[in-house]
Write a structure and sequence with these properties.
Layout: E1 3-6, H1 9-14, H2 21-30, E2 53-56, H3 63-81
Antiparallel strand pairs: 1-2
Length: about 80
């Protein structure tokens, strides 16, 4: 199973910073042991809001692992957006 998570441009703009939002999320979640590969890293223009997000499960991750990652992403957004 694969899950493609894309970030809505409105969210990207609301949480804009000096780096692509998916890269910022990946750095933050790495601090709690979750490794993510941001989609924006695969594009020349990392500021392009239409190419931000994550592909989960590509490396054969178990369903429980993907659920853990999705819950961690949910908590990250709740913390940042209130």
């Amino acid at each position: 199973m694969h899950i493609l998570i894309t970030l809505k441009p409105s969210i990207v703009l609301a949480l804009s910073s000096d780096m692509a939002l998916d890269q910022r999320i990946a750095l933050d979640l790495a601090q709690i042991g979750i490794e993510l590969s941001p989609l924006s890293a695969h594009y020349n223009d990392a500021s392009c809001a239409t190419h931000m997000g994550f592909l989960l499960g590509f490396s054969g991750a178990k369903e429980e692992t993907m659920v853990h990652i999705v819950v961690a992403l949910e908590h990250w957004f709740e913390k940042k957006l209130g």
